[in-house]
Prior knowledge:
- By secondary structure, the chain is an alpha+beta fold.
- The protein has 2 domains: 49 residues; 241 residues, Orthogonal Bundle (MetI-like fold).
- Helix content is 66%, strand content 7%.
- The strands form 3 sheets. A 4-stranded antiparallel beta sheet has the order 1-2-3-8. Strands 4-5 form a two-stranded antiparallel ribbon.
- Strand 6 and strand 7 form a beta hairpin.
- It is globular.
Amino acid sequence: MWRSVRRSRESGALWRDPSFRALLVQAVLLIALTAVIFVLVFNTMNNLEERGITTGFGFFGERAGFSIPQTLVEYSGNSTYAMTFLVGLLNTLLVSAMGVVAATLIGFLVGIARLSPNWLLAKAAMVYVEIFRNVPLLLQILFWYFAVLRALPSPRDSLSLFEAVFLNIRGLILPEPLPQPGFSAVLWALLLAVVASVLLVRFARRRQDRTGQRLPAGWLSLALIVGLPLAVYAINGFPLNWEMPSLAGFNFRGGITILPELAALWLALSIYTAAFIAEIVRSGIQSVAHGQIEAARSLGLSSGVTLRKIVVPQAMRLIIPQLTSQHLNLIKNSSLATAIGYPDLVAVFAGTALNQTGQALEIIAITMAVYLTISLVVSFLMNLYNARVQIKER
């Protein structure tokens, strides 16, 4: 480019050179952008100073003074705002991870069902997609929370299963596992079984490519993952007790409580996003040439094997980029939890903590940075998987 500019200078018509004009436009845009950022920062700092609002992150060490109904780490009213941020972040990650898994599974099943030769199944899948993707997500969250879960009976009239699991307006109460000495060996056995299963699957694929003989790696892996931990569990004398929930007064004591807010948000996010994923899966499967299916049938392969081994692997190359967008949308849509009071990052940190501290600039900036970081990490992982399933060109 500089050689072109030098030649233009020698010819005497610098403004006629496209490279010079492009460089000039970029320089002007950069200066304008820098000026806009400077003005915004200056005005923000000036307004904060006029209102007597101090800036900084010292509030993280201050006492929060409010309780949170669901915490995955130890938290109390004496905890700091830093712990409030951590609790909100973990709750957001929990519902996002649960939603991504459930929405993906439901979406794939519904997408495949839409292409089923069974008329009733295909129409039912179509009705599901058309209903849930065309109703606003916020209304679906409110429906599951107020119309379904808030209509459950009181704790005294709870729906019970074997007098161990209870369902009422306060949520789903389950027995809580209490690990005893020796339970760590069970966890190590589970980890070893998972690693061995991965190696077994890779060995089975290479063996089939080399000899054409199939090995039931799926069933063997399942038996390994279930059987080895159970064997270690029995050998160590069953090192796991259960704390059973019991009704005491107007509520249950003990056990694990799944809040109705978490259940409503999870259901709404999963069902809503699954409707879009189903259409993505359907379009990806239909993009595979029909000759591939005919060739599989001519070899005597069943419909299930054809779908699992031939159609879906080819369709994934088109599904993954759009699937990534839906996963990101689900994670960001989880911020609608404030509508029903689920204690996610927006509710407890960008809501209650912001109202108490007044540090709007810092808290909102941190919250935006957290969602941006989560989205970038998910995009990075999905892009890695997308690169793995792409056709390798020579």
